[in-house]
Amino acid sequence: MTSYLVQLVLIGGVTSAGVYLLLERSLTRMLMGLLLISNAVNLLILSAGGASGSPPIRGGTSNGAEDTVDPLTQAMILTAIVITMGVAAFVLALAYRSYRLTTVDEVSDDPEDTRVSQLSDEEATTIDADRPQPPGLHKDTDAPDELDALPGHEGSR
Predict the structure, then answer these.
(1) What is the CATH number of the domain that holds 44?
(2) 20-56 per-position pLDDT tens digit
(3) Domains of the chain: total
């Protein structure tokens, strides 16, 4: 199986451009980066499929080719195209909804995440200890609970 250097450099360039766009804060650029990466992966699968040949149809020949092309790579690319279309539609819907709510295409830092990331470990554990626990949630102890007497329960006696 031979791979051409020009194809691999092109695939690497498209992938790097896609990663660069995916790391931007603009949702539109993130979508474009996602599409570029998926197209680069499709090109990689196609180039890994080997040289072209006769179609995988009984009795079908193409320009006197002796080898038959592998249909698995074509099926994988078609499946990847459909998955990419679904993911792109989902990301586009998220971007549209975000734009309708904030009228900005950029993703900003969440102030609560920024505040929590600046806390030290001791402050974070203190905040968690001071926070009231919701009713019904308690630490598991070896003391019998009222559910222990129910039949079929792991702790039933």
Answers:
(1) 1.10.287.3510
(2) 999 988 888 999 999 999 999 999 998 887 777 767 7
(3) 1
